[in-house]
Design a protein that fits this description.
434 residues, 5-stranded mixed beta sheet, 4-stranded antiparallel beta sheet, 37 strands
Length: 434
């Protein structure tokens, strides 16, 4: 994720808006989703005094017309008090906390005192593995609550994955595999597969996923810049490598600025990913993008965004020469999607089957307010068409808008009864079940 304090304020002009949908906000209050008629400005804004506030936009964007987001599906979220272990009394849990969840769902703190948990994966025996970027470690959390350090002394570790009983993890420059002594222990042997991942910069997360279709490891290497071309062509890419020590990662996919969330579709076997767009273009552009990642394709960044629209700051850049493709669905700008997982269970109902659950970390951009900070659901056809988005967990804000928690990673239990969400602000993992 990107955390920055510098801002670039573009020249602003009044925009004409049209209401296209209604959805729950992070604090449970109703919010409108707007589509701009003359620019690609799409934003969600609060209802004030029965009328919508006029949206301010960058007039440079007017050349690009209207961008369409995935339609919003209302789930009628209800307030639920978070169940908290008796030993957890530190702020913000020194008072009752509530979240907005779908009807019939419950929320609880599954574990606490975890440092700053980020990415998360679950093993069949119920053991949870999570990364802790700030403390440079990968941890195991046993079904009985026992915490074990798998690896430490790492440089900004983020991505984790489990495949055939092997744990894969990566930090800024290296990729490791961890072979367990037995299928249910947390002891074992770590092997560094490569240390050839380029340094980070403006963005620095590394996401790792096992791709069954070609039995390769995919590593997302985020951009070192906001919206300028990379000097090092091994950034803003997805690499592919064998599960073999000393294997050199090969660039498979280009033009992805800040792809953190990645997951393999349970039926098609294709890699789905969310790319978080350029900061500071405008309040509402560019949208976050859902891409289906395919080798030798270029997804447009830094010159292009959305349906190959030109970034107003990059009009002089040369366009990609080959493999150019477009996203299959788009979402509100600046959500900062940090993880995604496909739901394959039955406990939540048929309309959840093969839906994508996504965490939005949220970021402060031009407006000075944080967009996102919630958990979302996306239903779509197997090829990504027909996408419909919903909020499924909101309420991580105080009444005054201040954020008291941030969702980062998400994982789903094998029985489909529970999904888990990490919170790197409060050092906890939440569990949501029906």
């Amino acid at each position: 994720m990107t955390v920055h304090t510098r801002f670039r304020f573009p020249t602003l002009a009044l925009a004409c808006i049209a209401i296209v949908g209604l959805m729950e906000g992070c604090g449970g209050a109703a919010q409108f989703l707007y589509q701009n008629e003359s620019t690609p400005a799409i934003r969600r804004d609060t209802l004030a005094g029965g009328t919508a506030r006029t949206t301010l936009q960058n007039p440079q964007d007017s050349i690009n017309g209207v961008v369409k987001l995935a339609p919003v599906e209302m789930l009628g979220l209800r307030e639920a008090t978070i169940e908290v272990p008796s030993g957890l009394t530190a702020p913000p849990f020194d008072k009752p906390r509530t979240l907005m969840v779908p009807p019939g769902f419950k929320a609880r703190v599954h574990a606490y005192d975890l440092g700053h948990p980020n990415d998360i994966v679950l093993r069949n025996d119920g053991t949870i593995f999570f990364s802790d970027m700030e403390n440079g470690r990968v941890m195991a959390l046993g079904p009985d609550g026992t915490k074990t350090t798998i690896a430490d002394g790492l440089s900004s570790p983020f991505g984790l994955d489990l495949h055939e009983g092997v744990l894969y993890y990566c930090d800024e420059n290296r990729v490791f595999r961890f072979d367990f002594s037995t299928p249910t222990t947390v002891t074992g042997t770590a092997t560094m597969l490569t240390d050839r991942i380029t340094d980070g910069g403006y963005n620095y997360t590394r996401t790792i996923r096992w791709m069954p279709a070609d039995r390769k490891i995919y590593i997302s290497v985020t951009s070192t810049t906001n919206n300028t071309p990379e000097d090092d062509l091994s950034s803003a890419v997805v690499l592919r490598m064998n599960d073999k020590k000393g294997d050199l990662p090969v660039t498979a996919i280009r033009g992805v600025r800040n792809t953190i969330a990645m997951a393999v579709h349970p039926e098609t076997g294709e890699m789905w990913a969310i790319d978080n767009g350029t900061d500071y273009m405008s309040l509402d552009s560019p949208p976050e993008e859902l891409n289906i990642l395919k080798p030798n394709k270029h997804y447009g960044w830094p010159k292009l965004y959305s349906q190959n629209l030109v970034d107003p700051d990059r009009t002089e850049d040369k366009p990609p020469t080959s493999g150019l493709t477009t996203p299959v669905a788009e979402f509100q700008a600046h959500l900062e999607i940090t993880d995604m997982a496909f739901y394959t269970g039955t406990a939540f109902g048929s309309d959840w089957r093969n839906a994508v659950l996504m965490t939005s970390y949220g970021e402060r951009k031009i407006s000075g307010t944080t967009e996102g900070c919630k958990v979302m659901r996306l239903r779509a056809n197997n090829d990504g068409t027909g996408a419909v988005q919903s909020d499924i967990v909101t309420g991580f804000r105080e009444a005054d808008g201040a954020i008291w928690a941030r969702p980062v990673g998400i994982a789903i239990s094998n029985d489909g009864n529970t999904f888990y969400v990490t919170d790197d602000v409060n050092g906890v993992i939440y569990a949501f079940s029906k």
